């Protein structure tokens, strides 16, 4: 019986049912386009200027018309067969819309010339528009579409008025220097040239539609406050079909249904993370604690007025009504201090109706407000969400939410109630249902009361009226909440142990905007080492793995040693197989292996004599990324921020499924995605690769991605675990955070993905966490990931990090990438710094994953 055929022989055989390749197939390109349409966010639509009517004439302005950014750079880039920009999208609909040719040609010539001189998409200046061109265009049409584009990339961050990175970007990146030349303050804002161009266009055209081709948060005050801007659509970095998707939405081929996955504030300085972001290249103090994104803006006094567009916001061409809401609890338990005595659920049921004139989808969002108590809480927290199916005008759908009470628990890291425990504090819990964080459903008078009194529920599909174990929650119109529930006693939902305790973070923010002092643990030395540390970068960065020496042997003779296939066929246990391996074998198994086929990020294996296949890995989050020279072109999907803004796990699943198929067809078994670090700050250069400021939304969307990928029998690799929220000096920057903030904000999305989708691999991050490298952090990798969450897959380092391999192995990191150091690892074992047992544990995790990948 053959095992791991594609991994061993890299046959590159097509996987399509009809014998055709699925890579960059029409089906996958369609999935990319449909996902892009689902995640684009309509910010403004005055006088229903959108959708454009059939026969419309448009004049296109802004170099972003041609200078389209499909996705971020670095590991997030994809070599795709083509990229369709905004002009391409309109030209594909030439039977419905006419494009003013002169302005299109002006920008096409300008951008092509800039690219020929080494220009990078999203990083070329905005040209001045000739006055006569504007006049001719205005005589031809009254409608202008203005496009702005921005580049995002790995390895560098945005600057702000508080400062910017003061180091030379790694790998010879020149992007930061280009950005400094083009963007006077930051690419968060329009440049002076862009402002002039926009003003010139608005003077000449009564209808101005703005498109934002960006990877993350941006200044949008000039959209909200400018009456001369009629409509605005955030198209994000929409992948290879992004221009098509945007044009189709503008022409009414679908109604926008994306919702913001982040809060859009007016300035960079409005975000609490900005001031200290570039204070040091060596560390970041997470003094904002749990008050990240809308948790800050909706809670801290005076912050709400800084918001331009709130979390969860997004318009549609149609309109919706939320009605007929009922809430109740089930099995509330009795509470008390004992863990495991409480299993209450909050149920909310409501009806949503399309009351407009276009088919469309809406996202119904459930928020809760927990009592402030002793711990302090955000004013509102996302508890659940649901995107409707496509509703025709007049059509309704019933939405049912089930919110486990334990989801609302807070982590007590200081012992104010119960130290190192998840706690529900006694008091009133309020529940809000709406279409953004500030929206609130006002139910019809008496609807909840009727159910409470045993009357009819008034709608088909509503739950039966409550019995003794159900309590219908009272509707309120006072602004305190749609529904409320009173918890009489504090409840410990889970007792943990103190982990990731800070050693240098002195204070953290409280709900009233003040700060409290934090207790600190004894400081440690992250560079402590039994060896002379390897020199960075010359002995670490971009070092390819060694090719393991293999003695000559008869080519057709059956191997004498046990084979991994024996485990797959049940002839021996995995533990028996591992015990048959020598110490040297283990050190090689725990280290990266050279590339095979068209892979370029190396793999796992290194034991050919024992029948262990070399399993290849590949970047990246927006598509399977191969080097241009391989000739393999894959589908470039939308960036992760856009996928989060779909608020639709089904759409993200389809992207994961398609990407997983492309990986497998090209003999890649580990796809290094999704990346789920929190959008703590708009300054992080890698936000395009991450999902949201909210861990629940990020976790749910990314879990769908993992399920999609692994449906193709390819391992998803969840990354970057954890707190990799800054690219500047990322391999040596210390993320200083409270244990509560770590658990509630920065680890929660990882936990959701682990528990709901079980990714077969996890990537530890480069950075330090409270003075200890993430890849060497026993609290993180063993205490939380394995002991608390029960994870049994493979943990790999990020590529060419500065951790020492024996310390990583002892902490629970299984494989060192892109290359390991087998000789150092074996010497460390001989010195007693790492044990054979610890190496066998790592081997079990790696081989368990490889066994899951069997053909």
Describe this structure in words.
25% of the residues lie in helices and 17% in strands. It is an alpha/beta fold. The strands form eight sheets. The chain has a six-stranded mixed beta sheet with strand order 1-6-5-4-2-3. A six-stranded mixed beta sheet has the order 23-24-25-26-28-31. A four-stranded mixed beta sheet has the order 8-27-29-30, with no helix packed on it. Helix 15 (583-589) crosses helix 24 (836-852), helix 17 (649-665) packs parallel to helix 18 (695-710) and helix 18 packs parallel to helix 20 (748-757). The longest helix is centred in the last third of the chain and has 17 residues, at 649-665. The protein is globular, with a radius of gyration of 27 Å.
Topology:
Elements: H1 5-9, H2 26-39, E1 41-45, E2 56-61, H3 86-91, E3 97-99, H4 101-116, H5 131-140, E4 143-149, H6 175-182, H7 192-204, E5 207-213, H8 221-224, E6 231-234, H9 242-250, E7 264-265, H10 274-277, E8 283-285, H11 294-297, E9 307-309, E10 320-330, E11 345-354, E12 363-369, E13 381-387, E14 396-404, E15 410-412, E16 421-424, E17 427-434, H12 447-452, E18 470-472, E19 483-487, E20 491-495, E21 507-509, E22 515-517, H13 564-568, H14 574-579, H15 583-589, E23 603-604, E24 615-618, H16 640-645, H17 649-665, E25 670-671, H18 695-710, E26 715-721, E27 734-736, H19 739-746, H20 748-757, E28 761-764, E29 768-769, E30 772-773, H21 778-788, E31 794-796, H22 805-811, H23 822-830, H24 836-852
Parallel strand pairs: 2-3, 2-4, 4-5, 5-6, 8-27, 24-25, 25-26, 26-28, 27-29, 28-31
Antiparallel strand pairs: 1-6, 7-9, 10-11, 10-18, 11-14, 12-13, 12-17, 15-16, 16-20, 17-19, 21-22, 23-24, 29-30
Helix pairs in contact: 2-9, 2-17, 15-23, 15-24, 17-18, 18-20
């Amino acid at each position: 019986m053959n095992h791991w055929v594609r991994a061993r022989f890299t046959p590159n055989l097509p996987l399509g049912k009809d014998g055709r390749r699925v890579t960059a197939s029409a089906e996958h390109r369609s999935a990319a386009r449909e996902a892009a349409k689902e995640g684009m966010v309509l910010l403004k639509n005055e006088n229903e200027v959108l959708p454009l009517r059939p026969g419309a004439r448009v004049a296109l302005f802004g170099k972003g018309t041609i200078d389209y950014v499909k996705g971020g750079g670095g590991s997030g880039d994809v070599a795709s067969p083509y990229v369709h920009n905004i002009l391409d999208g309109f030209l594909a609909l030439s039977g419905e819309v006419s494009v003013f040719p002169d302005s299109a040609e002006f920008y096409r010539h300008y951008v092509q010339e800039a690219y020929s001189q080494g220009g990078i998409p999203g990083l070329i200046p905005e040209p001045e528009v000739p006055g006569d061109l504007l006049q001719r265009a205005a005589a031809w049409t009254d409608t202008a579409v203005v496009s702005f584009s921005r580049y995002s990339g790995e390895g560098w961050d945005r600057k702000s008025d508080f400062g910017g990175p003061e180091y030379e970007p790694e790998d010879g990146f020149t992007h930061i220097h280009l950005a400094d030349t083009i963007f006077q303050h930051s690419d968060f804002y329009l440049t002076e040239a862009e402002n002039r161009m926009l003003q010139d266009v608005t003077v000449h055209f009564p209808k101005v539609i703005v498109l934002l081709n960006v990877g993350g948060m941006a200044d949008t005050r000039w959209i909200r406050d400018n009456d001369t801007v009629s409509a605005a659509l955030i198209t994000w970095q929409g992948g290879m079909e992004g221009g098509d998707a945007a044009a189709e939405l503008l022409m009414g081929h679908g109604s926008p249904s994306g919702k913001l996955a982040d809060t859009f504030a007016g300035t960079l300085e409005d975000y609490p993370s900005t001031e200290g972001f570039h204070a040091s290249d060596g560390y970041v103090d997470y003094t904002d604690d749990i008050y990240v994104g809308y948790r800050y803006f909706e809670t801290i006094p005076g912050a709400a007025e800084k918001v331009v567009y709130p979390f969860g916001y997004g318009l549609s061409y149609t309109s919706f009504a939320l009605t007929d809401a009922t809430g109740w609890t089930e099995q509330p338990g009795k509470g008390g201090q004992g863990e495991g005595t409480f299993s209450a659920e909050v149920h909310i049921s409501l009806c949503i109706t399309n009351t407009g004139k276009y088919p469309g989808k809406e996202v119904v969002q459930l928020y809760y407000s927990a009592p402030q108590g002793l711990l302090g809480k955000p004013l509102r927290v996302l508890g659940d969400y649901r995107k409707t199916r496509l509703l025709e005008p007049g059509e309704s759908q019933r939405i049912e939410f089930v919110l486990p009470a334990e989801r609302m628990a807070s982590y007590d890291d200081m012992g104010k109630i119960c130290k190192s425990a998840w706690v529900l504090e006694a008091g009133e819990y309020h529940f809000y249902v709406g279409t953004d964080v500030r929206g609130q459903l006002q139910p019809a008078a008496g609807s909840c009361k009727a159910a409470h009194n045993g009357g009819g529920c008034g709608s088909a599909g509503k739950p039966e009226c409550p019995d003794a174990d159900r309590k219908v929650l009272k509707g309120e119109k006072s602004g305190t909440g749609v529904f409320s529930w009173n918890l009489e006693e504090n409840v410990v939902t889970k007792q943990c142990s103190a982990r990731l305790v800070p050693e240098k973070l002195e204070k953290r923010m409280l709900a009233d905007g003040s700060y409290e002092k934090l207790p600190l643990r004894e400081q440690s030395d992250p560079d402590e080492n039994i060896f002379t540390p390897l020199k960075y970068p010359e002995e670490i960065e971009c070092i390819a793995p060694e090719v393991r020496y293999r003695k000559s042997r008869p080519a057709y003779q059956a191997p004498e040693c046990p084979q991994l296939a024996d485990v797959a066929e049940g002839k021996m246990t995995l533990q028996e197989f591992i015990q048959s391996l020598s110490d040297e074998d283990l050190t090689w198994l725990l280290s990266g292996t050279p590339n095979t086929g068209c892979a370029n990020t190396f793999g796992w294996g290194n034991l050919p004599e024992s029948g262990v296949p070399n399993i290849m890995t590949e970047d990246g989050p927006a598509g399977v990324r191969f080097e241009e020279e391989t000739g393999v072109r894959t589908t470039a999907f939308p960036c992760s921020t856009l996928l989060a803004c779909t608020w639709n796990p089904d759409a993200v699943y389809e992207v994961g499924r398609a990407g997983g198929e492309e990986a497998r067809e090209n003999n890649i078994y580990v796809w290094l995605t999704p990346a789920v670090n929190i959008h703590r700050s708009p300054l992080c250069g890698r936000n395009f690769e991450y999902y949201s400021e909210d861990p629940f939304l990020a976790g749910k969307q990314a879990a769908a991605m993992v399920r999609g990928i692994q449906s193709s029998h390819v391992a998803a690799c969840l990354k970057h675990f954890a707190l990799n929220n800054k690219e500047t000096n990322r391999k040596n920057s210390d993320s200083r955070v409270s244990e509560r903030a770590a658990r509630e904000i920065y680890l929660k999305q990882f936990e959701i993905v682990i528990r709901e989708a079980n990714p077969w691999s996890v990537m530890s991050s480069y950075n330090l966490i409270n003075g200890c490298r993430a890849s060497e952090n026993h609290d993180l990798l063993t205490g939380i990931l394995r002991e608390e969450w029960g994870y049994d897959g493979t943990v790999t380092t990020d590529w060419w990090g500065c951790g020492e391999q024996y310390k990583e192995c002892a902490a629970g990191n299984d494989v060192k990438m892109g290359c390991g150091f087998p000789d150092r690892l074996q010497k460390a074992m001989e010195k007693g710094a790492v044990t054979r047992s610890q190496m066998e544990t790592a081997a079990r995790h790696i081989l368990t994953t490889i066994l899951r990948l069997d053909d």
